[in-house]
Every structure is written in C-alpha cells, then in structure tokens.
Amino acid sequence: MRYRLGVDVGGTFTDILLIDQESGQTYRAKTPSTPHDQSIGVLAGIRKACAVADVSPDEIGEILHGTTVATNAILEGKGARVGLVTTAGFRQVLQIARSFVPGGLAGWIIWPKPEPLAALEDTVEAVERVAADGSVVTPLDEDDLRAKLRSLRGVEALAVSLINSFAFDGHERRIAELAAEELPGVPVSISSEVLPELREYERTVTTVANAYVQPRVARYLDNLGLDLYALRSDGGLASQASAKAAPVNMLLSGPAGGVAGATWVAEQAGFTDFLTFDMGGTSTDVALVQDARPRVGRETKVGDLTVRSASVDVRTVGAGGGSVAHVPELTRALRVGPQSAGAEPGPAAYGKGGTDPTVTDANVVLGYLPSRLAGGEIVLDRERSRAAVAQVADAMGLSVEAAAQGIVDIVNENMFGALRLVSVQQGFDPRDFALVAFGGAGPLHANALGRLTGSWPVIIPPSPGVLCAYGDATTCLRDEASRTSIKRFSQLTDDELRQMLTELAERAAATLEAEGVGRADQTVTYQVDVRYHGQGFEIPIDLGLDTGLEALGKAFDAEHERLFSFLLSNEHEVVSARASVSGPRPDVRPVRLDQGGPAAEPVDKHEVWIDGGWAEASIYDRGTLLAGDRIEGPAIVTEMDSTTLVLPGHVADVHESGSLLIRPLEA
Q1: DSSP notation for 343-400
Q2: Which parts of the sequence belong to the Acetophenone carboxylase-like C-terminal domain (predicted)?
C-alpha cells in the first residue's frame, strides 16, 4: 500500500494527513472535532482526505492515530468505575498518596484534594505478602479473596496492585485469573504488567489510571472500526491491541505527535536542537529536543493526576486561539485564558454563537488573519470580532486595536513562560535552540515568541496546522520493558548490568517481532535510574550496552550537577533499568521545492496593526512559494490550515524542504 495516513484529534479541530510514500506528496483535511464522540470527526476527516487525494480508503496501508480519548477521560472525570485489590493493610494507599500540595504558601488551606480514581468502598484487601526480594511471606488466601471480589460486582474495570509485586508477580497473576471467574467481562489491569517498578503509590495510581480509561479507549477504538496504530506518550506507536491493554501509555498521545512531526521537519531543514511550540485552539504544548531526540520523562501529568509512564517532556498552558480574554472586576487587569471557547461555540469570528473575546478575535481585529480559514471551510466575521474585543476595550478604556494588541501580548507572555519551563528551568539556554512553531495558531505567534526567547531561526513547517498528524504518520513502532533492581555500584558488576539490560531488550524486542518488525530492523536504547545511596529520588541516565559502571557514575554526576548545581560523595546506586526497542521509521520521501528566489511575489496587500499603528503588509500564498524565496516583514503567509505572520525587521526564507525560516533582518 503506497498511502500512509496520520490522524490527530485536538480540542478544536481534527487533523488528517494522507501521505503518498512514493512521491512524498501530502493531502490534508481539517474538520471540526466532535467532543461527544471523536470517532465521528475522525471518520469524516478520513473520507474528506481520501476525496481530496482521489483515492479509495482501501489504498491506505497504515493508519496512525494520536488521540486524546484517554486524556479527556481523566480531565472530564468520565472514566470507568474501578475496583482495586491491594495487599492487606494497604487499602488507603490512594487516599494517603504523597504529601505534596500544589500552589504557593499555605496552598493546602484552599486546595480541594482530588478524589482517587478508585473509591475506598470499591477497594478490597488480599491476604498475602511478598518481601522486597520476591520471596513469599504470606501465601495468597484465595477463598477469602473470592468473596471480596464478588462484593465488587458492579465495577467496570479492576486494578490489582500488591506490595513488592515488581519482585514477584505470581499473586497478581493469580488474582487476575480469579477475577475472570468472579467478575466475567471486567477488564483487569495488574501493576506487574503496567509498571513493574519500585514505589507502591506510583505503581498503584498508574495501574488504577490504566483501568480507569481502559473501557472508554477500547470502546472508542472499536467504534472507529479501523485497523490502526495508536501513538504512545513517548512518541512511539503501539498496536491496537497494546493500546487497549495499556491506554495509560497514551495520556499524552496528542502532544507527542507534534514533537515527533517537529523532529522530522527540523531534520529536513538541517536542525537537531530546537524548542517545539504547538498552539492550537484550546492549549499550547511546548517541548525541548536535543540531538534530534525529544527529552522523555518518567512521569505523565494530566490535570491533578501524575502517573509513572514514559512521555515526551511536554508542558501545557491554557493558551490557544480560543482562549477567552476577560477583565476581572476586582483587579481591572487584563487576563487571557485558561478558559477557552473551544470548538463549540468557538471565537466570535466563527459566527456560531460565541460572544466572548478570544485570541483569534484579537488577531482578526489586528488584521493578522485572512477572512477564510481551513481552505474556505470557516469564514471569519471581523465585525463580530470587533464587538467581542470591544468588551475588553470598554472595560479598560482603550481602543479596540489597543485592547486586541494587549490580548495578543499577554498570551505571548504566557507561552513564553511555558517555553522557559522546558529550557531555562532545565538548565538550557533557549538562544542555543531553534524554535519550531506549528498548530493552527502557532505560526501566527511564532515570530513574537522568537523575539522573546532569542531562539532563531523560527521554523514554520509545511502544513503546520496538521503537523501532529504528520508526526503520527512518520514515527515508528516502539515498546519498553523495565525492572527494579536496587543495588549499590559495589554490589554490581559491569557484566551483571549488561545482562539485565540484555534481558529487558529481549522482552521488548519480542513484542515488536510479533508485530512483524524483524530483529535486524530494530533499534534498542537503554536507560538506568541512578541515585546517590540514601537519596530519595533518582535520575534517568541514557547509556549504551557496553557502558560500564564507572562511565555511568560520571554521566549521573554530570546530570546531577546540571540540574541541581552540586554533587555528593555518597556511593552511586542503581534503582531501575529499562530498554526501549523501536522499529524503523517509515520510508516517506521528503518534499523538495523547485528553486526560485530571491524575491517572492505577493498576491495582495493588507492593513495590519503593528507597534501601535496601521501598516501595509504583503500577503503571500504559501502554495506558490519556491526554494530560495525571501519574504520581508511585515507580511502574512496564508495556507489551508494555518497563517504565518512575519513581523517588521524580520525575514522569512523558504527552505528547499518547504519550511519557512524566520530570522531578524540584521542576522
């Protein structure tokens, strides 16, 4: 099959990208998301993309899907009713949790503690006990447990998380067998499969989260009726069966697709170190990529929930095209977001009943957006936008244009703060990185974010509005195996470490082999969690199979000093190890533009409000641009799925890969 299709569901739009793997030609479709049932918008978008390309859906070889179904189930509190089985004496593990309260000083006074995903009344205790070395201290009392499982009839999913099951999983597996008899049809998640690592609370909450979203994800994938691969939070692909079994690994599926797509296009333009900036209708996601490898963290955060699952280190802020601007009565200071107009009713400019002033409305007032979006599917009403922004202008005693500029400036500062979280706060200087901007609204704000961060060039990929779908379509299958084994370096040899990593790689490789990826086509990476003996946390360190303990210790010291600016003399200690196995990246031929330049021809002129006054900006059709063309600001570049703003004093050069590279004129 010559066609490969990427699907990304956002809060406002569903993006579809169909790729001809032989020519590299792409066909795009953008349809409004359908929050009540995402499958409706997905199937409509696939039909639309196939119609644009004049191909039959039967000609599509693979469908790669980034989805927010699991994320939304957590955020909306609409997951399954979960039953939980713990070791006797640990029934309140979720209620005790960790003694960390978000917020500032005395935040605990007003912080409403979130309810656990498994209620206490749906939690039962198994009479059993396993020691930390895996030896059985108390055998499992099966008769007692059967009666307790029968009391859980009515739950929609079951989670099993026993003490030290990472060292011995026999009791958990037996409980799963008993549950199949006593609770037929109820899906069971066991912690020794979901997260076979140290720390009981993190392992339990991750397993419960998996059970919480499992029925909804399975139902969604079944409703689609498609044979597809789902994007994992770490940027790899999982088979449909794996996605149904471990949906907790998909909580950041959508943002991970954007980072994967940004990595693809940045490499085509010759850049390996960059920040990603994905601004959609509801939120903005940012990440840092170094040496063409996204930084992958060991935790995934969704709302108030933090689970132990590998994910691209993405930070999210409630700043998007639909973010609502308001002026609180108490402070009379302009605020933007996190509330969003979303897809329904959307910004006032959409004419669907929205009346609140949004970032999109501000951009319309300033002249930055054309009258039509998404290939003419959405018509913008400038007068409705002015009426909406006038609410802010009247409240602050400003002109409508000044109020709109204020809205844009504030949302830019909010997104700049997010970019600092993944760069400055992690010990990186943003001036050492390029900035890849995408999403439906990203290119409109990218030049301004480049000025704030000092990150040049600002890279605007081809089809930036559907880049997440492009990332879905250009990434590869991946699986991971992990194990906890706490040993000080003096208790471990290089050969023993190598043996442990090899065994983990074998487990993950077997999973990919079952999906048709031969061993010769697999790539293995290794990671070990290291800490100083006596320390309460560890740092994941990447290493090679031949890396010895001495080199591992030096790498840990360097990372510890970068993060915390100090070192300890305590002995090093290995906590957990993992191996990640990836299949080959798809053989998608990159697009190469014909040579043109140096001056691109504008298709129109347009008045825009910049730096406190109206100025004439040239408008360019991106579809007509050629490699080597140069665009001087102020200018607007339009295309089907996004709009790029080039500010005065800056130029955008068209790279042969199709990306726009924006730099200050003096550079």
Answers
A1: TTT--GGGTSS--S-BHHHHHHHTT-S-SEEGGGTEE--HHHHHHHHHHHHHHHT--H
A2: 495-649
Whether residue 457 has a cis bond before it, omega within 30° of 0: yes
Single-letter amino acid code for the residue at 313: D
Handedness of CA 311, 291, 22, 621 (dihedral sign): positive
How many CB atoms lie under 10 A from the CB of residue 495?
9
The three-class DSSP label of residue 235 is coil
Residues 196-232 pLDDT 10s: 888 899 999 999 999 999 999 999 888 888 888 888 8
The pLDDT-based confidence of 401 (bands split at 50, 70, 90) is very high
Are residues 368 and 446 in contact, defined by beta-carbon separation less than 8 angstroms? no
This prediction has a pTM of 0.81
76-90, 310-324, 530-544: range with lowest mean pLDDT: 310-324
Q: Work out the widest C-alpha separation in the chain, in whole angstroms.
A: 81
For residue 13, what are the contacts with CB-CB under 8 A and spacing of at least 6? Answer: 30, 31, 32, 33, 280, 281, 343, 374, 440, 465
- Rounded to 5 degrees, what angle do the CA atoms 421, 425, 429 make? 100
Pairing type for strands 630-632 and 650-654 reads antiparallel
Contact 76, 18 (CB under 8 A): no
Provide the CA 102 distance to its chain's centre, in angstroms.
Answer: 22
